[in-house]
């Protein structure tokens, strides 16, 4: 039996460090809450606007402006929520684009991101998310162009 390693029994502390963070667990719980809300009829734009309203400034203001940008530049995308974040889905119901406020995972900046359903493929390597500290006219123009391309 020499050479056999005996597996250590996982303790509560090792299970916590190996598993999901508290923020990740909260995001999963929000996903379940989103699904339950959708079953009760609170989905789409209502759910998205509720998520935005719950954010702190300056993220709330950025999220409102991004919502307007998406509606104007990618009307084929439907407002929804995704892991508790404002998101926009394609006709198949798959999230294409999302806004993550900085409080979501205790980050120092908000993030906009694109899932693999976005039409952004450019060669072997392309960006799928961007940090957003403030929403300038230049940033708005870039987001508008990316969202339009992602929805195509």
What is this structure's SSE topology?
Layout: H1 12-18, H2 22-39, H3 44-53, H4 59-73, E1 78-82, E2 85-89, E3 95-100, E4 110-114, E5 129-132, H5 137-151
Antiparallel strand pairs: 1-2, 2-3, 3-4, 4-5
Helix pairs in contact: 4-5
Rounded to an integer, what's the Rg over CA atoms?
A: 19 Å
Q: Beta fraction of the residues?
A: 15-25%
Uncertain spans: none
Number of helices: 5
Strand order of the largest sheet: 1-2-3-4-5
Q: If you average the pLDDT, what whole number results?
A: 86
Query: Structural class, from secondary structure content?
Result: alpha+beta
Order of helices and strands: HHHHEEEEEH
What percent of the residues sit in helical stretches (DSSP H or I)?
40-55%
Shape: globular
How far is the first residue's CA from the last residue's CA? Answer: 61 Å
The major pleated sheet works out as: 5 strands, antiparallel
| Strand segment tally | 5
Descriptive overview:
The chain has 5 helices and 5 strands; from the N terminus they run ααααβββββα. It has a 5-stranded antiparallel beta sheet, with helices on one face. The protein has 152 residues and is α+β, with helices and mostly antiparallel strands. Helix content is 43%, strand content 16%. The chain has helices at 12-18, 22-39, 44-53, 59-73, 137-151; strands at residues 78-82, 85-89, 95-100, 110-114, 129-132.
């Amino acid at each position: 039996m020499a050479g056999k390693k005996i597996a250590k029994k996982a303790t509560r502390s090792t299970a916590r460090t190996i598993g999901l963070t508290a923020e990740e667990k909260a995001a999963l719980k929000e996903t379940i809450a989103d699904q339950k809300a959708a079953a009760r009829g609170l989905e789409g734009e209502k759910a998205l606007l509720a998520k935005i309203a719950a954010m702190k400034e300056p993220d709330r203001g950025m999220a409102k402006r991004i919502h307007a940008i998406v509606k104007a530049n990618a009307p084929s995308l439907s407002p929804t929520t995704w892991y508790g974040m404002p998101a926009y889905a394609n006709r198949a119901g798959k999230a294409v684009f999302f806004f993550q406020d900085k409080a979501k995972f205790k980050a120092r900046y908000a993030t906009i991101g694109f899932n693999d359903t976005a039409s952004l493929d450019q060669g072997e390597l392309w960006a799928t998310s961007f940090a957003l500290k403030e929403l300038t006219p230049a940033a708005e123009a870039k987001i508008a162009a990316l969202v339009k391309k992602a929805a195509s």
